[in-house]
Design brief:
- The complex is a heterodimer of chains A (about 270) and B (about 290).
- By secondary structure, chain A is an alpha/beta fold.
- Chain A is about 40% helix and about 20% strand.
- Chain A contains 9 helices and 11 strands.
- In chain A, helix 8 packs across helix 9.
- The longest helix of chain A is centred in the N-terminal third of the chain and has 25 residues.
- The N and C termini of chain A lie far apart (about 80 Å).
- About 0% of the residues of chain A have low confidence.
- Chain B is mainly α.
- Chain B has one domain: MetI-like fold (Orthogonal Bundle), CATH 1.10.3720.10.
- Chain B is built from 12 helices and 2 strands, in the order ααββαααααααααα.
- A two-stranded antiparallel ribbon of chain B has the order 1-2.
- In chain B, a hairpin with a 4-residue loop joins strand 1 and strand 2.
- In chain B, helix 3 runs antiparallel to helix 9.
- Chain B is globular, with a radius of gyration of 23 Å.
- Classes of the chains: A alpha/beta (about 270), B mainly alpha (about 290).
- Chains A and B meet through helix 1, helix 3 and strand 7 of A and helix 1, strand 1 and helix 5 of B.
Chain lengths: ~270, ~290
Protein backbone atom coordinates (compact mmCIF):
# COMPACT_ATOMS: atom_id res chain seq x y z
CA UNK A 1 0.00 0.00 0.00
CA UNK A 2 2.72 2.52 0.98
CA UNK A 3 4.88 1.80 -2.07
CA UNK A 4 1.84 2.22 -4.33
CA UNK A 5 1.14 5.53 -2.65
CA UNK A 6 4.74 6.55 -3.30
CA UNK A 7 4.58 5.56 -6.95
CA UNK A 8 1.27 7.36 -7.34
CA UNK A 9 2.63 10.56 -5.85
CA UNK A 10 5.72 10.41 -8.10
CA UNK A 11 3.51 10.03 -11.17
CA UNK A 12 1.31 12.97 -10.18
CA UNK A 13 4.29 15.26 -9.56
CA UNK A 14 6.01 14.38 -12.86
CA UNK A 15 2.80 14.85 -14.85
CA UNK A 16 2.20 18.12 -13.08
CA UNK A 17 5.68 19.42 -13.90
CA UNK A 18 5.42 18.39 -17.56
CA UNK A 19 2.02 20.01 -17.94
CA UNK A 20 3.24 23.16 -16.28
CA UNK A 21 6.22 23.44 -18.59
CA UNK A 22 4.02 22.91 -21.66
CA UNK A 23 1.70 25.72 -20.58
CA UNK A 24 4.65 28.00 -19.92
CA UNK A 25 6.15 27.25 -23.34
CA UNK A 26 2.98 28.09 -25.22
CA UNK A 27 2.61 31.40 -23.42
CA UNK A 28 5.58 32.93 -25.24
CA UNK A 29 3.68 34.81 -27.91
CA UNK A 30 4.93 38.05 -29.48
CA UNK A 31 3.49 41.31 -28.18
CA UNK A 32 1.93 43.43 -30.83
CA UNK A 33 4.13 46.42 -31.52
CA UNK A 34 7.49 44.73 -31.02
CA UNK A 35 9.82 44.05 -33.93
CA UNK A 36 12.77 41.75 -33.28
CA UNK A 37 15.85 41.92 -35.49
CA UNK A 38 19.15 40.10 -35.35
CA UNK A 39 22.07 39.18 -37.55
CA UNK A 40 24.90 41.01 -39.24
CA UNK A 41 27.08 43.10 -36.94
CA UNK A 42 27.73 45.36 -39.92
CA UNK A 43 24.02 46.17 -40.13
CA UNK A 44 23.55 46.31 -36.37
CA UNK A 45 24.35 50.00 -35.71
CA UNK A 46 22.27 50.94 -38.74
CA UNK A 47 19.33 48.83 -37.56
CA UNK A 48 19.70 50.40 -34.12
CA UNK A 49 19.54 53.92 -35.57
CA UNK A 50 16.59 53.06 -37.82
CA UNK A 51 14.77 51.39 -34.95
CA UNK A 52 15.20 54.37 -32.67
CA UNK A 53 13.95 56.79 -35.33
CA UNK A 54 10.98 54.56 -36.10
CA UNK A 55 10.15 54.38 -32.39
CA UNK A 56 10.22 58.16 -32.17
CA UNK A 57 7.57 58.36 -34.86
CA UNK A 58 5.46 55.45 -33.56
CA UNK A 59 5.90 55.35 -29.81
CA UNK A 60 3.88 52.17 -29.42
CA UNK A 61 6.37 50.14 -31.45
CA UNK A 62 9.59 48.78 -29.97
CA UNK A 63 12.37 47.64 -32.27
CA UNK A 64 14.84 45.30 -30.60
CA UNK A 65 18.17 44.89 -32.35
CA UNK A 66 20.76 42.18 -31.81
CA UNK A 67 23.97 41.01 -33.44
CA UNK A 68 25.29 37.51 -33.92
CA UNK A 69 26.47 37.74 -37.52
CA UNK A 70 24.75 37.26 -40.89
CA UNK A 71 24.63 33.49 -40.44
CA UNK A 72 22.74 33.90 -37.18
CA UNK A 73 20.33 36.39 -38.71
CA UNK A 74 19.50 34.06 -41.58
CA UNK A 75 18.99 31.05 -39.31
CA UNK A 76 16.96 32.92 -36.73
CA UNK A 77 14.56 34.55 -39.16
CA UNK A 78 14.11 31.24 -40.94
CA UNK A 79 13.38 29.50 -37.62
CA UNK A 80 10.89 32.19 -36.67
CA UNK A 81 12.91 33.38 -33.68
CA UNK A 82 13.10 36.97 -34.97
CA UNK A 83 10.95 39.00 -37.35
CA UNK A 84 13.81 40.42 -39.41
CA UNK A 85 17.22 38.90 -40.12
CA UNK A 86 20.03 41.16 -41.26
CA UNK A 87 22.66 39.95 -43.71
CA UNK A 88 25.66 41.78 -45.16
CA UNK A 89 26.11 39.50 -48.16
CA UNK A 90 24.18 37.96 -51.03
CA UNK A 91 22.16 34.85 -50.23
CA UNK A 92 23.63 31.68 -51.68
CA UNK A 93 22.13 28.40 -52.77
CA UNK A 94 22.86 26.87 -49.34
CA UNK A 95 20.83 29.56 -47.58
CA UNK A 96 17.11 28.99 -46.99
CA UNK A 97 14.75 30.88 -49.31
CA UNK A 98 13.94 34.22 -47.69
CA UNK A 99 12.44 37.48 -48.88
CA UNK A 100 15.16 40.09 -49.46
CA UNK A 101 14.66 43.78 -48.74
CA UNK A 102 17.71 45.78 -49.77
CA UNK A 103 18.69 48.32 -47.15
CA UNK A 104 21.95 49.81 -48.35
CA UNK A 105 25.22 49.12 -50.08
CA UNK A 106 28.49 48.96 -48.21
CA UNK A 107 32.09 48.87 -49.24
CA UNK A 108 34.53 46.47 -47.59
CA UNK A 109 37.74 48.20 -46.63
CA UNK A 110 41.10 46.48 -46.23
CA UNK A 111 42.40 47.91 -43.00
CA UNK A 112 45.70 48.29 -41.18
CA UNK A 113 46.99 50.33 -38.29
CA UNK A 114 47.54 53.96 -39.35
CA UNK A 115 51.25 53.67 -38.50
CA UNK A 116 51.75 51.07 -41.23
CA UNK A 117 53.67 52.74 -44.14
CA UNK A 118 51.78 50.74 -46.81
CA UNK A 119 48.99 52.87 -48.31
CA UNK A 120 47.56 50.69 -51.06
CA UNK A 121 47.49 47.20 -52.52
CA UNK A 122 46.30 45.54 -55.71
CA UNK A 123 43.49 43.02 -55.50
CA UNK A 124 45.97 40.27 -56.40
CA UNK A 125 48.18 41.25 -53.48
CA UNK A 126 45.17 41.21 -51.15
CA UNK A 127 44.31 37.68 -52.28
CA UNK A 128 47.92 36.56 -51.80
CA UNK A 129 48.15 38.05 -48.33
CA UNK A 130 44.88 36.58 -47.09
CA UNK A 131 45.57 33.17 -48.60
CA UNK A 132 48.98 33.02 -46.97
CA UNK A 133 51.01 33.21 -50.19
CA UNK A 134 52.62 36.49 -49.08
CA UNK A 135 53.71 36.40 -45.43
CA UNK A 136 56.03 39.38 -45.05
CA UNK A 137 55.19 43.06 -45.31
CA UNK A 138 58.37 43.75 -47.32
CA UNK A 139 56.83 41.91 -50.31
CA UNK A 140 54.27 44.70 -50.65
CA UNK A 141 56.43 47.69 -49.82
CA UNK A 142 56.28 47.59 -46.06
CA UNK A 143 58.74 46.87 -43.25
CA UNK A 144 60.51 43.53 -42.87
CA UNK A 145 58.11 41.76 -40.53
CA UNK A 146 55.59 38.98 -40.71
CA UNK A 147 52.00 39.83 -41.61
CA UNK A 148 49.33 38.90 -39.07
CA UNK A 149 46.07 38.27 -40.90
CA UNK A 150 42.84 38.95 -39.02
CA UNK A 151 39.50 37.64 -40.24
CA UNK A 152 35.96 37.28 -38.95
CA UNK A 153 34.36 34.00 -37.95
CA UNK A 154 33.19 31.80 -40.82
CA UNK A 155 29.52 32.63 -40.40
CA UNK A 156 30.16 36.37 -40.71
CA UNK A 157 28.45 38.03 -43.65
CA UNK A 158 31.37 40.40 -44.06
CA UNK A 159 33.70 37.42 -44.36
CA UNK A 160 31.31 35.70 -46.76
CA UNK A 161 31.16 38.81 -48.92
CA UNK A 162 34.94 39.20 -48.77
CA UNK A 163 35.41 35.57 -49.77
CA UNK A 164 33.05 35.89 -52.69
CA UNK A 165 34.06 39.35 -53.95
CA UNK A 166 37.81 39.26 -53.36
CA UNK A 167 39.15 35.76 -52.70
CA UNK A 168 36.97 33.94 -55.21
CA UNK A 169 38.09 30.33 -55.20
CA UNK A 170 41.22 31.00 -53.11
CA UNK A 171 40.93 29.87 -49.50
CA UNK A 172 41.62 32.16 -46.57
CA UNK A 173 44.66 30.85 -44.68
CA UNK A 174 43.88 28.76 -41.63
CA UNK A 175 46.65 30.63 -39.80
CA UNK A 176 44.50 33.77 -39.69
CA UNK A 177 43.42 35.04 -36.30
CA UNK A 178 39.66 34.93 -35.90
CA UNK A 179 37.79 37.68 -34.09
CA UNK A 180 34.06 37.43 -33.68
CA UNK A 181 32.63 40.85 -34.40
CA UNK A 182 33.26 43.96 -36.48
CA UNK A 183 34.28 45.89 -33.40
CA UNK A 184 36.67 43.15 -32.28
CA UNK A 185 38.42 43.20 -35.68
CA UNK A 186 38.81 46.95 -35.54
CA UNK A 187 40.27 46.82 -32.05
CA UNK A 188 42.64 44.00 -32.96
CA UNK A 189 44.00 45.87 -36.01
CA UNK A 190 44.25 49.10 -34.07
CA UNK A 191 46.50 47.32 -31.59
CA UNK A 192 48.76 45.40 -33.99
CA UNK A 193 51.24 47.37 -36.12
CA UNK A 194 51.73 44.41 -38.46
CA UNK A 195 48.15 43.30 -38.81
CA UNK A 196 45.80 43.41 -41.77
CA UNK A 197 42.09 42.71 -41.94
CA UNK A 198 38.87 43.56 -43.69
CA UNK A 199 35.98 45.58 -42.33
CA UNK A 200 32.79 47.29 -43.38
CA UNK A 201 33.74 50.75 -44.61
CA UNK A 202 31.23 52.26 -42.23
CA UNK A 203 33.28 50.94 -39.29
CA UNK A 204 36.49 52.70 -40.31
CA UNK A 205 37.38 55.39 -37.80
CA UNK A 206 40.51 57.22 -36.73
CA UNK A 207 41.98 54.16 -35.00
CA UNK A 208 42.52 52.32 -38.29
CA UNK A 209 43.12 53.23 -41.92
CA UNK A 210 41.66 51.83 -45.12
CA UNK A 211 44.06 50.93 -47.93
CA UNK A 212 43.61 51.95 -51.57
CA UNK A 213 42.67 48.98 -53.73
CA UNK A 214 44.00 48.98 -57.31
CA UNK A 215 44.79 52.64 -56.72
CA UNK A 216 41.19 53.57 -55.83
CA UNK A 217 40.76 55.17 -52.43
CA UNK A 218 38.30 53.54 -50.05
CA UNK A 219 35.76 56.32 -49.76
CA UNK A 220 31.98 56.49 -49.87
CA UNK A 221 32.16 58.54 -53.06
CA UNK A 222 34.11 55.80 -54.82
CA UNK A 223 31.61 53.19 -53.71
CA UNK A 224 28.77 55.35 -55.03
CA UNK A 225 30.37 55.92 -58.41
CA UNK A 226 31.19 52.20 -58.54
CA UNK A 227 34.95 52.57 -59.04
CA UNK A 228 35.85 50.93 -55.69
CA UNK A 229 35.84 47.20 -56.42
CA UNK A 230 34.67 45.67 -53.13
CA UNK A 231 31.00 46.46 -52.51
CA UNK A 232 28.22 44.29 -51.08
CA UNK A 233 24.50 44.66 -50.41
CA UNK A 234 23.02 44.95 -46.92
CA UNK A 235 19.72 43.16 -46.59
CA UNK A 236 16.80 42.91 -44.20
CA UNK A 237 15.39 39.42 -44.65
CA UNK A 238 11.95 38.14 -43.74
CA UNK A 239 10.60 34.62 -43.94
CA UNK A 240 7.53 35.60 -45.97
CA UNK A 241 6.22 38.84 -47.40
CA UNK A 242 6.05 41.14 -44.36
CA UNK A 243 2.74 42.42 -43.00
CA UNK A 244 1.62 44.85 -40.33
CA UNK A 245 4.18 46.58 -38.17
CA UNK A 246 7.13 44.75 -39.75
CA UNK A 247 6.05 45.90 -43.24
CA UNK A 248 5.70 49.48 -41.99
CA UNK A 249 9.20 49.37 -40.54
CA UNK A 250 10.80 47.98 -43.68
CA UNK A 251 8.96 50.52 -45.87
CA UNK A 252 10.29 53.23 -43.56
CA UNK A 253 13.85 51.93 -43.88
CA UNK A 254 13.69 51.81 -47.65
CA UNK A 255 11.95 55.20 -47.91
CA UNK A 256 13.57 58.60 -48.04
CA UNK A 257 13.77 59.09 -44.26
CA UNK A 258 15.33 55.69 -43.66
CA UNK A 259 17.80 56.16 -46.51
CA UNK A 260 18.89 59.48 -45.03
CA UNK A 261 19.76 57.60 -41.83
CA UNK A 262 21.62 55.04 -43.94
CA UNK A 263 23.77 57.76 -45.48
CA UNK A 264 24.33 59.49 -42.13
CA UNK A 265 25.73 56.27 -40.69
CA UNK A 266 28.34 55.86 -43.37
CA UNK A 267 26.60 53.40 -45.67
CA UNK A 268 25.54 53.95 -49.28
CA UNK A 269 21.85 54.61 -49.84
CA UNK A 270 20.08 52.59 -52.51
CA UNK A 271 19.37 54.96 -55.34
CA UNK B 1 0.10 11.60 13.29
CA UNK B 2 -0.82 10.53 9.79
CA UNK B 3 -0.07 14.10 8.72
CA UNK B 4 3.56 13.77 9.76
CA UNK B 5 3.76 10.50 7.88
CA UNK B 6 2.36 12.17 4.75
CA UNK B 7 4.89 15.01 4.92
CA UNK B 8 7.70 12.50 5.28
CA UNK B 9 6.53 10.52 2.28
CA UNK B 10 5.88 13.56 0.11
CA UNK B 11 9.26 15.12 0.75
CA UNK B 12 11.01 11.85 -0.14
CA UNK B 13 9.00 11.70 -3.35
CA UNK B 14 9.69 15.29 -4.33
CA UNK B 15 13.42 14.95 -3.75
CA UNK B 16 13.48 11.73 -5.75
CA UNK B 17 11.58 13.38 -8.59
CA UNK B 18 14.00 16.29 -8.79
CA UNK B 19 16.97 13.94 -8.78
CA UNK B 20 15.40 11.92 -11.58
CA UNK B 21 14.58 15.13 -13.44
CA UNK B 22 18.24 16.16 -13.35
CA UNK B 23 19.24 12.79 -14.80
CA UNK B 24 16.50 12.99 -17.42
CA UNK B 25 17.63 16.45 -18.51
CA UNK B 26 21.25 15.31 -18.75
CA UNK B 27 20.27 12.27 -20.77
CA UNK B 28 18.07 14.40 -23.01
CA UNK B 29 20.90 16.85 -23.71
CA UNK B 30 23.31 14.02 -24.49
CA UNK B 31 20.79 12.31 -26.75
CA UNK B 32 19.95 15.52 -28.63
CA UNK B 33 23.61 16.32 -29.17
CA UNK B 34 24.27 12.86 -30.55
CA UNK B 35 21.25 12.97 -32.84
CA UNK B 36 22.13 16.43 -34.15
CA UNK B 37 25.73 15.40 -34.75
CA UNK B 38 24.85 12.36 -36.87
CA UNK B 39 24.60 14.16 -40.26
CA UNK B 40 28.13 15.48 -39.88
CA UNK B 41 29.50 12.11 -38.74
CA UNK B 42 27.76 10.46 -41.65
CA UNK B 43 29.11 12.96 -44.16
CA UNK B 44 32.70 13.17 -42.97
CA UNK B 45 33.16 9.90 -41.12
CA UNK B 46 33.98 9.66 -37.40
CA UNK B 47 37.65 8.72 -37.82
CA UNK B 48 38.24 11.41 -40.40
CA UNK B 49 36.69 13.97 -38.08
CA UNK B 50 38.66 12.92 -35.02
CA UNK B 51 42.02 12.88 -36.76
CA UNK B 52 41.53 15.31 -39.64
CA UNK B 53 43.65 18.45 -39.51
CA UNK B 54 41.59 20.78 -41.71
CA UNK B 55 38.70 22.66 -40.10
CA UNK B 56 36.72 24.97 -42.36
CA UNK B 57 32.97 25.35 -42.30
CA UNK B 58 32.90 27.13 -45.65
CA UNK B 59 34.87 24.36 -47.35
CA UNK B 60 32.95 21.62 -45.50
CA UNK B 61 36.18 20.33 -43.92
CA UNK B 62 35.45 18.88 -40.50
CA UNK B 63 38.80 17.86 -39.04
CA UNK B 64 38.67 18.24 -35.26
CA UNK B 65 42.26 17.42 -34.40
CA UNK B 66 43.56 21.04 -34.17
CA UNK B 67 40.92 22.06 -31.70
CA UNK B 68 41.06 18.82 -29.70
CA UNK B 69 44.81 19.32 -29.33
CA UNK B 70 44.28 23.01 -28.63
CA UNK B 71 41.85 22.27 -25.80
CA UNK B 72 44.13 19.60 -24.32
CA UNK B 73 47.28 21.70 -24.59
CA UNK B 74 45.81 24.82 -23.07
CA UNK B 75 44.19 22.82 -20.24
CA UNK B 76 47.38 20.84 -19.54
CA UNK B 77 49.43 24.03 -19.57
CA UNK B 78 47.07 25.72 -17.14
CA UNK B 79 47.11 22.69 -14.80
CA UNK B 80 50.93 22.50 -14.86
CA UNK B 81 51.04 26.00 -13.41
CA UNK B 82 47.84 26.13 -11.40
CA UNK B 83 48.18 22.88 -9.44
CA UNK B 84 51.56 23.52 -7.79
CA UNK B 85 50.72 27.18 -7.23
CA UNK B 86 47.24 26.37 -5.97
CA UNK B 87 48.25 23.58 -3.62
CA UNK B 88 51.13 25.67 -2.29
CA UNK B 89 48.74 28.54 -1.64
CA UNK B 90 46.34 26.14 0.06
CA UNK B 91 49.11 24.85 2.32
CA UNK B 92 50.04 28.43 3.13
CA UNK B 93 46.49 29.38 4.04
CA UNK B 94 45.78 26.21 6.00
CA UNK B 95 48.99 25.67 7.92
CA UNK B 96 51.42 28.54 7.75
CA UNK B 97 49.68 31.89 7.53
CA UNK B 98 48.70 33.72 10.70
CA UNK B 99 44.95 33.88 11.32
CA UNK B 100 44.58 37.52 10.39
CA UNK B 101 46.29 37.01 7.03
CA UNK B 102 44.09 34.03 6.35
CA UNK B 103 40.94 35.95 7.27
CA UNK B 104 41.85 38.46 4.59
CA UNK B 105 43.23 36.18 1.88
CA UNK B 106 40.62 33.42 1.89
CA UNK B 107 37.62 35.67 1.06
CA UNK B 108 39.75 37.34 -1.62
CA UNK B 109 40.42 33.96 -3.23
CA UNK B 110 36.74 33.05 -3.05
CA UNK B 111 35.87 36.35 -4.71
CA UNK B 112 38.29 35.59 -7.53
CA UNK B 113 36.49 32.31 -8.12
CA UNK B 114 33.24 34.17 -8.75
CA UNK B 115 34.53 36.60 -11.38
CA UNK B 116 32.93 35.86 -14.78
CA UNK B 117 35.15 34.48 -17.52
CA UNK B 118 34.59 37.43 -19.82
CA UNK B 119 36.42 39.70 -17.40
CA UNK B 120 39.47 37.46 -17.46
CA UNK B 121 39.23 37.36 -21.24
CA UNK B 122 39.11 41.14 -21.42
CA UNK B 123 42.14 41.57 -19.18
CA UNK B 124 43.93 38.92 -21.21
CA UNK B 125 43.05 40.70 -24.45
CA UNK B 126 44.10 44.14 -23.32
CA UNK B 127 47.19 43.34 -21.24
CA UNK B 128 48.48 39.84 -21.84
CA UNK B 129 48.15 39.60 -25.63
CA UNK B 130 50.19 42.77 -26.34
CA UNK B 131 52.73 41.60 -23.75
CA UNK B 132 53.19 38.27 -25.51
CA UNK B 133 53.36 40.01 -28.88
CA UNK B 134 56.68 41.48 -27.75
CA UNK B 135 58.14 37.99 -27.74
CA UNK B 136 57.12 37.32 -31.32
CA UNK B 137 54.05 36.15 -33.15
CA UNK B 138 50.67 37.85 -33.09
CA UNK B 139 50.23 37.79 -29.34
CA UNK B 140 47.05 35.76 -29.63
CA UNK B 141 48.65 32.52 -28.60
CA UNK B 142 48.69 29.34 -26.56
CA UNK B 143 50.80 31.19 -23.98
CA UNK B 144 48.15 33.86 -23.53
CA UNK B 145 45.47 31.22 -23.17
CA UNK B 146 47.49 29.28 -20.60
CA UNK B 147 48.13 32.39 -18.51
CA UNK B 148 44.46 33.41 -18.51
CA UNK B 149 43.24 29.89 -17.79
CA UNK B 150 45.75 29.43 -14.94
CA UNK B 151 44.43 32.53 -13.22
CA UNK B 152 40.87 31.34 -13.77
CA UNK B 153 41.24 27.89 -12.23
CA UNK B 154 43.61 28.90 -9.42
CA UNK B 155 40.89 30.04 -6.98
CA UNK B 156 38.97 26.79 -7.42
CA UNK B 157 42.03 24.68 -6.67
CA UNK B 158 43.11 26.86 -3.74
CA UNK B 159 39.75 26.95 -1.96
CA UNK B 160 38.88 23.28 -2.25
CA UNK B 161 42.43 22.09 -1.47
CA UNK B 162 42.58 24.36 1.53
CA UNK B 163 39.30 22.99 2.84
CA UNK B 164 40.60 19.44 2.38
CA UNK B 165 43.83 20.14 4.23
CA UNK B 166 41.99 21.79 7.08
CA UNK B 167 39.66 18.81 7.27
CA UNK B 168 42.49 16.43 8.13
CA UNK B 169 41.95 15.43 11.79
CA UNK B 170 44.05 17.24 14.34
CA UNK B 171 45.25 13.90 15.69
CA UNK B 172 47.28 13.34 12.51
CA UNK B 173 49.15 16.61 12.98
CA UNK B 174 49.64 16.05 16.67
CA UNK B 175 50.80 12.49 16.12
CA UNK B 176 53.38 13.53 13.54
CA UNK B 177 54.70 16.38 15.63
CA UNK B 178 54.81 14.13 18.69
CA UNK B 179 56.98 11.72 16.73
CA UNK B 180 59.44 14.55 16.12
CA UNK B 181 58.53 15.61 12.61
CA UNK B 182 59.15 19.19 11.52
CA UNK B 183 56.22 21.26 10.28
CA UNK B 184 57.22 20.74 6.65
CA UNK B 185 57.60 16.98 7.14
CA UNK B 186 54.15 16.93 8.70
CA UNK B 187 52.67 18.81 5.79
CA UNK B 188 54.46 16.92 3.04
CA UNK B 189 54.29 13.39 4.39
CA UNK B 190 51.12 13.34 6.48
CA UNK B 191 48.67 16.14 5.63
CA UNK B 192 48.96 16.23 1.84
CA UNK B 193 48.57 12.46 1.37
CA UNK B 194 45.58 12.50 3.74
CA UNK B 195 43.98 15.39 1.90
CA UNK B 196 44.76 13.73 -1.40
CA UNK B 197 41.20 12.97 -2.51
CA UNK B 198 40.07 16.53 -1.85
CA UNK B 199 43.03 17.97 -3.72
CA UNK B 200 42.34 15.61 -6.63
CA UNK B 201 38.72 16.73 -6.61
CA UNK B 202 39.81 20.36 -6.82
CA UNK B 203 42.09 19.55 -9.76
CA UNK B 204 39.28 17.75 -11.56
CA UNK B 205 36.95 20.70 -11.01
CA UNK B 206 39.61 23.09 -12.25
CA UNK B 207 40.21 20.91 -15.28
CA UNK B 208 36.48 20.85 -16.00
CA UNK B 209 36.31 24.63 -15.98
CA UNK B 210 39.43 24.90 -18.12
CA UNK B 211 38.38 22.50 -20.83
CA UNK B 212 34.91 24.03 -21.15
CA UNK B 213 36.05 27.65 -21.19
CA UNK B 214 34.84 29.39 -24.34
CA UNK B 215 34.54 33.15 -23.96
CA UNK B 216 37.93 33.94 -22.51
CA UNK B 217 39.65 31.60 -24.97
CA UNK B 218 37.98 33.23 -27.98
CA UNK B 219 39.39 36.54 -26.86
CA UNK B 220 43.02 35.53 -26.39
CA UNK B 221 43.79 32.38 -28.35
CA UNK B 222 43.24 33.71 -31.88
CA UNK B 223 40.93 30.83 -32.83
CA UNK B 224 43.08 29.76 -35.78
CA UNK B 225 42.23 26.14 -36.59
CA UNK B 226 45.85 25.05 -36.73
CA UNK B 227 47.80 22.65 -34.55
CA UNK B 228 49.92 24.95 -32.36
CA UNK B 229 53.61 24.33 -33.02
CA UNK B 230 54.87 26.57 -30.23
CA UNK B 231 53.64 28.47 -27.22
CA UNK B 232 53.54 31.65 -29.32
CA UNK B 233 51.35 30.11 -31.99
CA UNK B 234 47.62 30.87 -32.13
CA UNK B 235 45.30 27.99 -31.32
CA UNK B 236 41.65 27.09 -31.06
CA UNK B 237 39.62 25.12 -28.54
CA UNK B 238 36.52 23.01 -28.97
CA UNK B 239 34.33 25.12 -26.74
CA UNK B 240 35.67 28.31 -28.32
CA UNK B 241 34.96 27.13 -31.85
CA UNK B 242 31.39 26.19 -30.94
CA UNK B 243 30.81 29.61 -29.41
CA UNK B 244 32.41 31.51 -32.29
CA UNK B 245 30.66 29.66 -35.11
CA UNK B 246 27.43 28.65 -33.34
CA UNK B 247 24.84 30.62 -35.31
CA UNK B 248 25.05 28.79 -38.59
CA UNK B 249 22.62 28.49 -41.49
CA UNK B 250 23.48 25.26 -43.22
CA UNK B 251 22.33 21.98 -41.68
CA UNK B 252 25.50 19.98 -42.01
CA UNK B 253 27.65 22.82 -40.66
CA UNK B 254 25.52 23.17 -37.54
CA UNK B 255 25.66 19.41 -37.24
CA UNK B 256 29.47 19.65 -37.26
CA UNK B 257 29.32 21.97 -34.26
CA UNK B 258 27.17 19.42 -32.44
CA UNK B 259 29.81 16.86 -33.33
CA UNK B 260 32.41 19.00 -31.55
CA UNK B 261 30.03 19.08 -28.61
CA UNK B 262 29.78 15.27 -28.57
CA UNK B 263 33.59 14.93 -28.64
CA UNK B 264 33.89 17.46 -25.83
CA UNK B 265 31.30 15.54 -23.79
CA UNK B 266 33.17 12.28 -24.32
CA UNK B 267 36.52 13.83 -23.47
CA UNK B 268 35.17 15.19 -20.19
CA UNK B 269 33.65 11.81 -19.32
CA UNK B 270 36.95 10.05 -20.05
CA UNK B 271 39.03 12.54 -18.03
CA UNK B 272 36.61 12.45 -15.10
CA UNK B 273 36.60 8.66 -15.28
CA UNK B 274 40.38 8.51 -15.08
CA UNK B 275 40.33 10.92 -12.16
CA UNK B 276 37.73 8.78 -10.35
CA UNK B 277 39.86 5.67 -10.83
CA UNK B 278 42.92 7.41 -9.41
CA UNK B 279 40.86 8.69 -6.50
CA UNK B 280 39.45 5.27 -5.70
CA UNK B 281 42.87 3.66 -5.83
CA UNK B 282 44.22 6.41 -3.59
CA UNK B 283 41.56 5.99 -0.93
CA UNK B 284 41.91 2.22 -0.96
CA UNK B 285 45.63 2.52 -0.30
CA UNK B 286 44.95 4.88 2.56
CA UNK B 287 44.26 2.95 5.73
CA UNK B 288 42.70 5.15 8.34
CA UNK B 289 43.73 4.06 11.76
Amino acid sequence: MSSRLTKGLILIVIVGLLAGSLVAASCGGKLSGTITESGSTTVQPLAQALGEEFHKKHSDVQVSVAGGGSGAGITQVNDGIVDIGAASRELTSSDPPLVKHILARDGIAIITKPSNPVTGLTEAQVVDIFSGAITNWNAVGGPDHGITVYVREETSGTRGAFQELVMGSAKITSKAIIQISSVAIRQAIAGDSYGIGFESMAYVNETIKALDINGIAATQANVKNETYPIVRPLYFLTKTQPTGVVKDFIDFCQGSEGQKIVADNGYIAIS
Amino acid sequence: MRFRYLIDRTSKVVVLVFALLALVILAAIAAYNLKAALPAFRQAGVLHMLFGTEWSLTNKEFGLLPMILGSLMVTAGALIFAVPLGVACAILLAEVAPTRVRQFLRPAVDLLAGIPSVVFGLVGLVIIVPFIRDFGGPGYSLAAGIIVLTVMILPTIVSISEDSIRAVPKSYREGALALGATQWQTIWRVLLPSARSGIMASVVLGMGRAIGEAMAMIMVLGNSPVIPKSLLSPASTMAGTIAADAPEASGVQRSALFAISVVLFLLIIIINGIALVILRRGSRAQNVC
